[in-house]
Amino acid sequence: MLDLVLQAIAEPRRREILLLLRSTERSSGEIATHFEVTRPAISQHLQVLAAAGLVMVRRKGTQRLYRARPEGFEDLRSFLEGFWDEHLQILKQEAADYAGSGMLSGWCKKGAHREDEVEGAEQQPFKPGGFPVQADERVESSHQGK
Fold it and tell me: Of 69, 66, 43, 64, nearest to 54 (Cα)?
């Protein structure tokens, strides 16, 4: 089912249709008014979305009403969360390795959140991203203005 979902959302127009159907039911004719394509083309896109389990179809008289099915994204969500969880574990390990390397010793104590809670720490400049500026970088930056 994951392949069907990926193939369905690969088409930009289908993603736009999903956004239209996110909060309300709409007929294919009503959906077609938002696009410069034929109604049969919209019906074809809706069939692909329905086959992937991303939209549900309800009959009301002679009309077919379509609505997005958020649960149709569960397989995709699980797949992506697997990467996210793995990346967070790697990041956690790298942070632990960095903290254990001694580069943070003397700078902050566990649970410190403000500068005045940090014991014996001298003010140290930081680069974007929160990494400390090394001594040789400080010298270079102090000479750049001259």
Answer: 69
Q: Cβ(17)–Cβ(49) under 8 Å? A: yes
Distance between CA atoms of residues 83 and 35, nearest Å: 35
Split into its structural domains, the chain has a count of 1
Q: Which domain holds residue 40?
A: 2-73
67 bridge partner residues? 56
Q: What is the pLDDT of residues 135-144, one digit of tens each?
A: 555 444 444 5
Residues in the chain, pLDDT under 70: 102-146
pLDDT at 75: 93
SS3 content of the chain, % helix, strand, coil (to 5): 55, 10, 35
Alpha-carbon Rg for the chain, nearest whole angstrom, is: 27
Query: What would the pLDDT profile of 110-120 be if each residue is shown by its tens digit?
Result: 455 444 544 55
Cβ-proximal residues to 75 (8 Å cutoff; 6+ apart), any chain: 1, 2, 5
In a domain, 59, yes or no: yes
